Amino acid sequence: MKMGFGPYVLAAWLFFIGLYGIVTSRNLFHLILCISILQSSSYVLLLGIGYRTGAVAPVFSDIPVNTPAVDPIVQALVLTDIVIEVTVLALLLTLAVQIHKRHGTLDPDKLSAIRG
Amino acid sequence: MIILQGLILALIGVAGTAVVLTRKPLAQIIVMSFYGLLLGLMFFAFQAPDVAFSQIVVGAVAMPLLFLLALTKVRRNE
Amino acid sequence: MSLRTRTRLFLAAGMGLLAFFIYGLLGLPPVGQQISGYATKLNSLTVPARHITDTVTAVNFDFRGFDTMGEEYILFTSVMGVLLLFRTQRDEVEEAPRNHAPGRQAPPSSDAVRVCALSLMAPTLLFGIYTVTHGQINPGGGFQGGVILATVLLFVFLAGDYEIFRKMDAHRAVELAESAGAAGFVLVGLAAIILNKPFLENVLPLAPAGTVLSGGTVPLISLSVGIEVGAGILLLSTAFLEEALVLKSKKGG
Fold first, then answer.
1. Quick check: is C79 in a domain?
2. What is the pLDDT of residue C209?
3. In this structure, is residue A97 part of a structural domain?
4. Overall number of domains in chain C
5. Torsion sign (Cα): C164, C168, C172, C178
6. How far apart are CA C222 and CA C69, in angstroms?
7. Which domain holds residue A56?
8. Is C97 an 8 Å CB contact of chain A?
9. Within chain C, where are the H helices?
10. Staple partner for C165: which of C55, C85, C126, C157, CB 3.0–4.6 Å?
């Protein structure tokens, strides 16, 4: 039994559910965590593309060099992205905290009605 | 191995939906940490130890800490 | 428009998006059949050409080093943005923390938590340094090790001593370390230009594969990235902690 299209369907579903959370969110913190779900869908997709059935991790310290291994390029992309995502989320959190200080509410619907 | 991968993919789908459908921020952070752990396991099952390392370190340390501190600040102001 | 209208509109459009997305993704080859030609070439090329046994670190810091430099500066900029946004506003005054409820006895943090947290500081520091410096041999590298290094000082906060944590955290030194880490990457690249080679070319002699110094410039770049990521995340945590735990009231009451 092969993997088939499991990771692809999961990535599409996570993307959709993250978007749904952003559109129907009533709290800025909930919205920020849904953005994080959206990003993790791209990780699942990338790792799904780079996988080869029956292959090992691309670390050759104890196996011969010609063993079939999975794709290291997509792993490098996802690796740096995970660490950088948390700092960008911290920036978004800072903005949310400052908004709450100024306007007293965290509800996106109420925020759009405030002027000045 | 195939069974493990399929099972983890299904669990990730369920956990992702649970994160979005939890509306209270404090409960959502806890579900998010669980989701991060499942993602780390998935990266292991797909033969990516570097990525799993990164995900577990970030999802268990940096993300819950920053979110909980921001939540404390907001609760304090109210 | 109201929330309900928005939800219905999104669900209608979202179903179409989901259907087209899955239809598009089904055009890719099924998972597990093949990987790109570049990947196979890289897997067979890393150990002979660069003596690095962890291919992912080699891709990150050697074959694709220029992109990693750009990503590191995203991190730098985000930390700078957080620090800028959390500066004391014009109409705020920072107060010394005072006791708002003098009659209540707050329970002290339990001894088990203090002992565990404080005794885990040294092993975590060792593990963080090991991860940063051994990125070329085993899974690890600058990014992961940097986040581990940032947590060493946070154990003091976890043991319940925020005031001591504040005194221990030398803000200037951490900022300087972050800038030094960010500059280190560029300096390693410029060293290649001085030697008449392209930017970020691997110019140091390669040690045998499996030793700490294998890979030429990769250990240096990994070290500077580790310092930068660790200092950056420590700065973020300090800014958030100060914002959440130190009382700031508006001027004039």
1. yes
2. 77
3. yes
4. 1
5. negative
6. 11
7. 6-111
8. no
9. 3-25, 37-50, 55-58, 65-85, 111-119, 121-133, 142-158, 162-168, 171-194, 218-245
10. C157
Question: C44 in a domain, yes or no?
Answer: no
Q: From CA A54, how far away is CA C118, in angstroms rounded?
A: 43
Tell me the C-alpha distance between C9 and C91, whole Å. Answer: 43
Q: Is the pLDDT of residue A6 over 90?
A: no
If DSSP states are collapsed to H, E and C, what string results for A4-52?
Answer: ECHHHHHHHHHHHHHHHHHHCCCCHHHHHHHHHHHHHHHHHHHHHHCCE
Would the CB atoms of B77 and A48 count as touching at under 8 Å? Answer: no
Residues A73, C59: C-beta atoms closer than 8 Å: yes
Q: Do B20 and A96 touch (CB under 8 A)?
A: no
Instruction: Say how many domains are in chain A.
Output: 1
Q: What are phi and psi of C249, to 5 degrees?
A: -115, 160
C147 touches chain B (CB under 8 A): yes
C230 domain-assigned: yes
Q: What is the pLDDT of residues A99-110, one digit of tens each?
A: 888 888 888 888
Domain range annotation of chain B: 2-77
Shortest distance between the Cα of A92 and any Cα of chain C, in A, equals 9
Nearest-Cα residue of chain A relative to residue C65: A76
Give the model's pLDDT for residue A78.
94
Distance from the A64 Cα atom to the nearest Cα atom in chain B, whole angstroms: 17
- Helix or strand run (H / E) with residue A110: helix A108-111
**pLDDT tens-digit series, residues B44-78:** 999 999 999 999 999 988 899 999 999 988 888 77
Residue of B nearest to C32 (CA): B46
**C241: containing domain:** 53-96+111-250
Residue A17 lies in a domain: yes
Q: Interface pTM (ipTM) of the complex?
A: 0.90
Minimum distance, in Å, between the CA of residue C73 and any CA atom of chain B? 18
Tell me if A116 is assigned to some domain.
no
- The domain that holds A24 is classified in CATH as 1.10.287.3510
